Amino acid sequence: MRILSAFALIAAQVWALFEDEGIETLTSDNWAEKVDSDEENAWVVTFYADWCPYCKTFSDEFSAAISDPELADKKIKFGALDVMANRDLTKKYGIKRSPTVKIFGKDKETPEDYVGQRKTADIVSHVSEFCTTNEFVVAAPEPKEPEYTYNIDAIIKTISDAHKKRVAAASVELADAVKVLEGELGEDLKEVKEDFQKRLEQLASDRKAGLQAAYDAVQQKITDKKSEHALSIANLDDEAITVVESIIAKHKENIELAEYIDTLEKDWFNITWDYTTRRQIGAPAQDTGYAYGAVESAGYAAGPIDPVVAPTLAGGLPSAAGPAVGLYGAQAPYGAQQGYGVQQQQRGAYNQQSAGGYGRGYGAQRGYGAAAGGYGARAGYQGGYQGGYY
Asked: H/E/C letters for each residue in 25-67?
């Protein structure tokens, strides 16, 4: 009688077990949907009775295993099933006592019995090994693409150096063209002299007009060639300015510069992507002498004057001033204040409105135009050659 009374007392006392977050409450109604059809995850299921004191003790150990870090990368779910309320599943899986733990892997019809200690550490160890062996492991994430911070000064310097080479090559082409044209003048003069000998007495006036016409024609060709050259250089300069300004703008917008510069498809400069032109964010720093990330570098702006690119206007007489249109040296954002020209008092190297125009930027004693003439009208060019080009 006492034994029966004890069982009656236990049966009368029930507990809310296995109800922690992360433990699925399984029943005969949802078993197929949650467990049988789940091909992605393994299931650790405890079969319990809510009146069983052993189940009450095991409930806390079972719940603690869910959040163990060792199972963080495992494809595993935890569930609990009341044997008294779901007798069909209790019978199907041959449950003889509570609590009983079974692990359902890829074949949900033949689960594995857990026979270890009913302690969190033992459960975690066994489940972790089961998941690893049966490939219930979360795949490692794809490596993150590296991010870079760009050395805008080094990039612009590379472009500037390439641009200087283009300008130097164009100047050589101009010199060769002038020599050819001057040679043509010699041939024209020879023909005129021979004709003059034959018509010395009768055509004295014609001789003078012929010489002048030949001279003027060659000079006009030279002037036209210089104009063509100046326009070509202006176009090259404009392209370089546009490229630099677009790169600076994209850099301010945090656009990926390596990809952007490729889209420009410019074959006259090539930027080597090494530690002088960009640095991976988070990578150890190296002493390169450059300030990374600067968009408008005062250090670059105030550097020494390049004697080739930006000499003074010493020597040569200024021509009559042409109109101030088409001036290469107008106050455009390319000079000292934005990292290209020279010191403040010498901004004429690229963009001073007066004191040399284009000639101050490239020509020195051979300036193309007047003090404010630049490319302007004919007066800026024709007058300029006497004091600047020759």
From this structure: EECCCCHHHHHHCCCCCEEEEEEECCCCHHHHHHHHHHHHHHC
